[in-house]
UniProtKB/TrEMBL annotation:
Topology class, membrane: Multi-pass membrane protein
Pfam families: Na_Ala_symp
NCBIfam families: agcS
UniProt keyword list: Cell membrane, Membrane, Symport, Transmembrane, Transmembrane helix, Transport
Cellular component, GO, one term: plasma membrane
Organism: Aureibaculum marinum
Protein name, per record: Alanine:cation symporter family protein
Entry keyword Glycoprotein: no
């Protein structure tokens, strides 16, 4: 048996036996909850604006994303077509060989790769644009789109959906900036392995700007927080909601049920993450389209089944955004809920996706920046909106716009549930599952598979993010690698055993904490992004002119 797999077995079998002790889930939750509450209160420190207390981190996200959107002339619109063409491989020739040599000197086509290495020496990188996008999307398109949207609507009403969409649209600009920088300042090891992300553009980029000490501090802070975020939002939350769904479906209950399911999930994740980014990319490029396809298809079936209500649904989304339900803290309260859940879902501004995008094969950093534009669009604008519509339709009584559930009923207490007229409550992934099952009977079984795949792909992607940060802090040796992966697997078990309230407090705060060091760095470095964008667009225009002059399109032979 493979030694690494044997190590995993030896690690998990003893704790699986120990998990039979009654009440273990509760004991883990009791230990975890106080730490989650303390951390959430720290990260969501607020400042008074009028009659509202607004978290500083959300102000950073909103103002930063708005600034980048205006500064780069609304790239979500103006660069969307370029992003699609880049993913399709329309510019793979100039990205691989460089447009200056490729279209002015035919001899450049004879560039040879060095055998027995994992990279093409003519363009640093380990994965394609699509693989990088799939890995990053798998880290964002996850249970935030299923359970997270339900939490947002439960707390903020349908109006929270509007602000999630707004956050997704302006977040496209932030993703563009951070992922361009991720490629520009990445490290390439002697064996071709890529090391990239905010840790590197904060340290190397700010050093080039004359702020070396500040850059080193911000990079170290980001790396520490990213490790924590990989344990929280990228891990514990995913295992928690997957466990809830599995337990509900198979009726597996008891004092250690969450622990046991967590051990199984951890073992399966462990098999994958020992293979590194290339194995992760190969798996996510297959899982992501499949699971997203299942989920989107089911959502579309429900949406079209309620076709006559689509206009009404968007009407209450828009009206709820500006005329919120009572007890939610007014319009600012709804904006906070919407932006907080969207930030957790698409991670724009957190910098995490830049780690995956850094591994792409290209000579033009901005090429991956425009590809990254697609993430918040896919994640928040499309999939989160679909989930919201499904939940809103489910909450209609079938003949009118009257609500079966009471939106925001528990908002003051911070609980993530909606209340039925009989006083029972439902929230998180359970709410979304009930919404799908109401139109497609038995779909809960299919949704369980989709949820587990969502959770699984998110966990393996975030394990890569956390590992890259861990290596930045503790070196690139095998011991550091093993220690991180063991800790990551332990948090899968903790997340599965703890309650949603505890996990979501810790997870939200960990993801949002990344915003502080990352956004500060982006404000300093965005002029470099402007330079790289001009370089890439110039290359595209040179190729376009060459093709118009009769030059053969080399991509047809690649």
């Amino acid at each position: 048996m493979n030694k690494k797999l044997l190590t995993l077995l030896l690690f998990f079998v003893p704790i699986a036996i120990f998990a039979q002790e009654k009440g273990l889930d509760e004991r883990i939750n009791d230990w975890f909850m106080p730490k989650a509450v303390w951390w959430e209160n720290l990260i969501l420190t607020s400042i008074p604006i009028g009659q509202y207390n607004v978290p500083i981190v959300l102000l950073l996200l909103i103002l930063g994303a708005t600034f980048f959107t205006i500064s780069f002339k609304f790239p979500a619109i103006t660069r969307f077509k370029t992003a699609i063409n880049t993913v399709r491989g329309r510019y793979v020739d100039i990205e691989k060989h460089g447009v200056d040599k490729l279209y002015d000197n035919d001899e450049a086509l004879d560039v040879d790769d060095i055998k027995d290495t994992i990279r093409d020496e003519s363009a640093h990188g380990e994965v394609s644009h699509f693989q990088a996008l799939a890995t990053a999307v798998s880290g964002t398109v996850g249970l935030g789109n299923i359970a997270g949207v339900a939490v947002a609507i439960a707390l903020g009403g349908p109006g929270a959906t509007f602000w999630m969409i707004v956050c997704g649209l302006i977040g496209m600009s932030t993703k563009f900036v951070e992922c361009t920088l991720g490629v520009k300042y990445r490290d390439v090891g002697k064996d071709g392995t890529i090391y990239g992300g905010p840790m590197y553009y904060l340290s190397k980029g700010l050093k080039a700007q004359g702020f070396g000490a500040i850059g080193k501090v911000l990079a170290g802070l980001f790396a520490i927080l990213c490790v924590g975020a990989s344990f929280g939002g990228g891990n514990a939350f995913q295992s928690n909601q997957a466990t809830v769904q599995i337990s509900s479906l198979i009726g597996f209950q008891g004092g250690a049920s969450g622990f046991i399911i967590g051990v199984i999930l951890a073992f399966l994740v462990g098999i994958v993450i020992i293979g590194g980014i290339k194995r992760i990319a190969k798996i996510t490029e297959k899982i992501v389209p499949f699971m997203a396809g299942i989920y989107v298809l089911a959502a579309l079936i429900i949406i079209f089944a309620h076709f006559s209500y689509i206009g009404d649904a968007f009407s209450i989304i828009i009206s709820g955004a500006f005329d919120p339900y009572a007890g939610l803290g007014g319009i600012v309260g709804v904006i906070i809920v919407g932006f907080q859940r969207a930030a957790f879902s698409n991670e724009a501004g957190a910098g995490s996706a830049a780690i995956a995008h850094s591994a792409v094969k290209t000579k033009y950093p901005a090429s991956e920046g425009v590809v990254a534009l697609l993430e918040p669009f896919i994640d928040t604008v499309v999939i989160c909106t679909m989930t919201a519509l499904v939940i809103i339709f489910f909450n209609m009584d079938g003949t009118s716009m009257q609500s079966v559930f009471e939106y925001g009923a528990a908002g003051d207490s911070g609980s993530s549930v909606m209340l039925k007229s009989d006083g029972t409550s439902v929230g998180g992934v359970d709410l979304t599952t009930m919404a799908f099952d109401s139109v497609i009977p038995g779909f809960s079984y299919v949704l369980t598979i989709a949820i587990v795949l969502f959770a699984f792909s998110t966990m393996i992607s975030w394990s890569y993010y956390g590992l890259q940060s861990w290596k930045y802090l503790f070196g690139r040796g095998k011991t550091a690698d093993i220690v991180y992966k063991v800790l990551f697997l332990v948090f899968i078990v903790i997340g599965a055993a703890a309650t949603l309230d505890a996990v979501i407090k810790f997870s939200d705060a960990m993801i949002l904490a990344l915003v502080f060091p990352n956004m500060i760095g982006l404000f300093f470095l965005f002029p470099r992004v402007r330079e790289e964008m001009k370089r890439f667009i110039d290359a595209i225009n040179i190729k376009k002119e060459a093709l118009e002059d009769g030059h053969e399109d080399i991509t047809k032979h690649m």
